[in-house]
Write a structure and sequence with these properties.
By secondary structure, the chain is mainly beta. The chain folds into 3 domains: about 140 residues, Beta Barrel (Lipocalin); about 80 residues, no CATH class; about 80 residues, no CATH class. The chain has 4 helices and 27 strands. A hairpin with a 7-residue loop joins strand 23 and strand 24. It comes from Hymenobacter caeli. This is DUF4221 domain-containing protein.
Length: about 400
């Protein structure tokens, strides 16, 4: 050991300190490595491949944003139609109507109050550019109904029936009804592609009137309301007939309409107890004359006519019918007699099949049969029409 220190003393001072610090550093490093190995368990090679990081849950696709409005095609191009209806409480309305407390009393003026409403129609093209925007108010529909119903009614969204390229018009129905009552009316509205009102016509009555749902012909070349047939380039064909009330009307084909009338007129009658009532009065000639007419849409010509008394009146008229494309036949129900079979392809007098001529339905239904139901005034029926033999029909009475 003495020789070792003597050797150190013989070294220059710089080399002495270098040797001393090298020894100390080596000792500290050795001590540090010893502590790490002592505190960590031995590594064991995995038996298989190392697991990867956990897979992230798949991100669900973002739902497509709902585009407001109704999609439709105009002149071969896609469009969007947005229809809005809002009450306008900032614009109060009022009018004078005449009511009676009961059927004995004279009518007296009554102030009716309500609020205005706005109907907004917006048409946009495929790029989202506005084609037109038109706003109508409740007063714009007053000529179709009565002022008191317009004032009292709450605003309801118009229903879109379709676009007629032949008429160049978007077709809507708009309902007006007095809250908590059965008083109301419907308007049929036609707007052209500039947003201008082309026609305003009466629709189906909400508490009475003919059985006539506003409808476009399948080819779009005519529009039927409960008062007229609207045609391109021609004046509307009025359905009113003298000495009768329209009971119902509907398209037989794109070019023909069946209109059924109730002969006579309602007349006021004072009952013995003083109450006022109404009764139907018709002359013998009116009762004997045909009351159902197949009319040409193009020129209004009557193509065929016949007697039909299967309609009935409750809250308005009902003409029970069903048109079956498979047999190209329209079936009219007369629950006291049977069925009227009206050919759609070649309008002519209908064939009448009495209930006594039709076998009762016994299951099963045949493969070539088509089932449809019709509601009469007192009973409901199901019919099974043979599409291979249109005059072969079975029936069953569902309920009375």
């Amino acid at each position: 050991m003495r020789k070792f220190f003597l050797l150190l003393r013989a070294l220059p001072m710089r080399l002495y300190f270098y040797a001393l610090f090298s020894c100390l550093g080596f000792a500290g490093c050795e001590q540090h490595l010893y502590r790490r190995d002592e505190g960590r368990p031995a590594r064991v090679a995995p038996a298989g491949p190392l697991p990867g990081p956990p897979l992230a849950a798949p991100v669900p696709p973002r739902p497509a944003l709902a585009v407001p409005g109704i999609a439709l095609v105009i002149n071969g191009q896609p469009h969007r139609l947005l229809v809005q209806a809002r009450n306008d409480s900032a614009r109060p309305l009022s009018t004078v109507a005449y009511f009676a407390d009961d059927d004995r009393a004279r009518q007296h003026p009554t102030l009716v109050r309500g609020f205005d409403g706005r109907f907004t129609f917006t048409l946009r093209d495929a790029a989202g550019q506005q084609v037109f925007q038109r706003q109508l108010r409740k007063a714009d529909f007053a000529k179709v109904g009565t002022a008191d119903i317009v004032v009292e009614s709450a605003v309801a969204p118009p229903a879109f029936l379709g676009y007629s390229a032949a008429l160049g018009a978007l077709v809507f129905t708009v309902d007006f009804a007095v809250p908590d009552s059965d008083d109301g009316f419907q308007a049929v509205l036609l707007l052209n592609l500039k947003g201008q009102v082309v026609r305003l016509s009466p629709g189906r009555g909400l508490s009475g009137g003919p059985d006539c749902d506003p409808a476009l012909a399948h080819d779009g070349r005519a529009m039927l309301t409960n008062a007229e047939i609207i045609r391109p380039g021609l004046p509307p064909l009025r359905l009113a007939r003298p000495g009768a009330d329209l009971a119902g009307a509907f398209f037989l084909t794109d070019t023909t309409v069946l209109a059924v009338y109730d002969p006579g007129k309602n007349r006021p009658v004072r009952l013995p107890d003083g109450l006022l009532s109404y009764e139907r009065r018709a002359t013998p000639q009116q009762l004997q004359a045909p009351n159902a007419f197949v009319v040409s849409v193009a020129n209004g010509q009557v193509l065929s006519k016949f007697h039909y008394h299967g309609y009935y009146e409750g809250m308005g008229y009902s003409v029970p019918h069903h048109c079956l494309p498979a047999t190209r036949t329209c079936y009219l129900l007369d629950e006291k007699r049977g069925l009227y079979l009206l050919p759609a392809a070649a309008p002519g007098p209908p064939a009448v099949m009495r209930f006594a001529e039709m076998p009762r339905f016994v299951a099963p239904q045949w493969a070539q049969e088509v089932r449809f139901e019709m509601q009469g005034e007192d009973a409901q029926f199901a019919f099974y029409a043979d599409t291979l033999h249109p005059r072969r029909i079975r029936y069953q009475r569902l309920q009375d």
